[in-house]
Amino acid sequence: MNVIYLMGQLAQQGGTGAQSQGRGSASMIIMMVALFAVMYFVMIRPQKKKQKEEQSMRDSIQVGDEITTIGGIMGRVVTVKEDSLIIETGADRNKMKITRWAVSTNNTAAEKAEAERQAAKEAAEAEKKSKMDAAIEEGKAHRKKTKKNKDDTFDQ
Asked: Quick check: 80 and 62 in contact, CB under 8 A?
């Protein structure tokens, strides 16, 4: 808020007439709009994006998924209803009914995503290794060819 106050003071010091007052208020409005735009892109937009991802995760829960609730309860989904889930917890298979909004993470989906990331990483490393091997072989072939050309030149 101090920045806005200082900007307002600087705008008012620009002149003493009614025209400078108009410019001061216009610059103050521009500063407020700029401040709101920065707040939107830094705070509001990322939060909405996170909420959208969480909702899509909750909507994609299927029977058999391992989930963790916001209370820390871990269990396997047994039944999926419109706004609630029934999960099994523990070795003695206690069943609990919870609402969808109480799901914190879908561990099965997280494991699948991690496995896909790991597979993509391994594929990229394999691709890189094959390119390196091809470059090494190409370099060896080039050196042999160059050495043979030098030997032919000395023989003549």
From this structure: yes
Q: What b/e readout covers 61-72, taking b as 16+ CB neighbours within 10 angstroms?
A: beeebbbebeee
One domain, residues 53 and 12: yes
Q: How many domains does the chain have?
A: 2
Using pLDDT thresholds of 50, 70 and 90, give the confidence band for residue 57: very high
Asked if residue 99 is part of any domain, the answer here is yes
Q: Which residues have a Cβ under 8 Å from the Cβ of 10 and sit 6 or more positions away?
A: none
In a domain, 79, yes or no: yes
pTM above 0.85, yes or no: no
Query: How buried is residue 87: exposed, middle or buried, by Cβ count under 10 Å (0-12/13-18/19+)?
Result: buried
Cα atoms in the 13 Å half-sphere on the side-chain side of 46: 5
Domain residues for 68? 61-106
* Nearest in space to 79 (alpha carbons), one of 91, 61, 93, 102: 61
Lateral strand order in the sheet of 84-89 = 94-99, 84-89, 74-80, 66-69, 103-106
What is the token pair recorded at 150? 């030098």
